[in-house]
Amino acid sequence: MTEAARTEADLDLIMRIIPHRYPFLLVDKVRDIVVGESCVGIKNVTYNEPHFTGHFPGMPIMPGVMIVEAMAQTSGILVGLTMDLVDKNAKVYFMGVESCKFRRKVVPGDVLELHVKALRGGGRVWKFEGRAMVGGDLACEAIFTAMFDVAKG
């Protein structure tokens, strides 16, 4: 199967596309991939993640910036499959976040669904709409822009 024909990405494929690693890899799998258009990342939120020791003791809540980062990582996987960047050592850089709103807490035990849709792309700079959902409830929404850089050689 060609990478562009995939509708799902497991953890192995994810790590062949984006450079993030534990404890900063925030996507466990991706489903419903429509190359060049959209996908849904899955993040299983667990109590043993390092940010929960300080955010907040006795009341663990996933930091909002981590939710936005998880949406961005999901979009990086979509672009990686769209632009055939598997095993190409591509880097992804945030360029901007707009209209970001947080609607509900994300806590250990939640399954975070990261719905991303490409609004503009095709080259190095892409713009996305993201929605983070928990059990059908909107937790976060944002518009964000990222640049993709592929190592030469």
Give a structural overview:
- The chain has helices at about 10-15, 65-80, and strands at about 30-35, 40-45, 90-100, 110-120, 125-135, 135-150.
- The longest helix has 19 residues, at about 65-80.
- By secondary structure, it is α+β, with helices and mostly antiparallel strands.
The number of distinct helices, counting runs of at least 4 residues, comes to 2
Low-confidence stretches: none
Report the portion of residues in β strands: 35-45%
Distance, first to last CA? 26 Å
Overall radius of gyration: 15 Å
Characteristics of this structure?
single chain, 153 residues, alpha+beta, six-stranded antiparallel beta sheet, 39% strand
List the helices and strands and how they pair.
Blueprint: H1 11-17, E1 29-34, E2 38-44, H2 64-82, E3 90-102, E4 111-120, E5 125-134, E6 137-150
What is the compact description of this entry?
With 153 residues, the protein is of the alpha+beta class. It has helices spanning 11-17, 64-82, and strands at residues 29-34, 38-44, 90-102, 111-120, 125-134, 137-150.
